[in-house]
Structures are given as structure tokens and as C-alpha cells.
Known about the structure:
Helix 1 crosses helix 7 (138-148), helix 2 (34-46) packs antiparallel against helix 4 (65-105) and helix 6 runs antiparallel to helix 7 (138-148). This protein has one domain (9-160). 80% of the residues lie in helices and 0% in strands. It is mainly alpha-helical.
Amino acid sequence: MFSTQLATAPWQLAQAAEAYDTAAVTLEGAAGQKLPFQQHLGRALGVEWESPAGRAFRTAAEALHLPGEHLGAESSAIAEQCRAVAAELRDLAELARQVQQIVHMLANPELRATFAGILAADHLDWFWHRAAGALNSAHEMAEFLRDSGGIPWVLREAAARI
């Protein structure tokens, strides 16, 4: 009999969502450094050194002005994208947990055959095998859910009848 106890796709997807949330927090922290960066740069540019080294320093400091301007906006925009990706990954993780439960409920081949007859769905066993095969890979689970348009109706319907 098939065992879903070691299914890793739900865990992998949840871990990826956490990683994107962490990246968003880091990027938001970088965006928060824009004002202190500009203040430090302003103070550095206010120093007048009359020497070749002083002119070189001033040229280097002036070159940092434009990247400093973009620091906050770009970091915030990327952080927002990270949060959106994290939300999508959490949704996929939840669907993967549901698939895991359905695969476990329908692990008995005789039970699947019975429901296939009741539902007039010859492809129930095919969907079950495909779902079971996707449980150990976040990538395969995401492809399975994308290709199926979510959890296939035949799997949901068979599980609902148990």
C-alpha cells in the first residue's frame, strides 16, 4: 500500500514561502536605510579636502548619490514582489497538503476502482498516481496543480464520498 507519510512537497513549498518572507523583511530593512545612507553621504560630501585624495573621495561619494536614491524604491518594490510570491507558495503548500490527504484516503486500489465506476471516471487512477508521484517534489506538485487547474475534480469528488 502507498504511504504519504514522507511527502515533502507541502513542506518544501512552505519553506520556500518562509524564505521569500525573510527576503522581503531584509529588503524592507534595506529600504529603511535610504535616509541614513543619504545623511551619511551628505555629511561626507560636505567635507572639503584640498588634495588629490580629497577630490578622489568626493568623486567616489558623488558616484554613490544616484544608487542611494534608488535604494529605497527598488528594495520596496522587490520586497512587495517577494511577499506576493510567498503568498502564492503558501497557497500551493495548502493545496499540496490537501492532495496529500486525498492520496492517502484513496491509497487502496480497489477503493479507487469502485469510485471510478461510480463517478464514470476511468482516469481517477491515473490522476491518483500522478498526484502521488508529485508529493515528493515541490516543482512536480506545482506542475501537477497547474496542469490540472488545481486539485482535479475527480480526486476531490472521490475523497468527498469516503
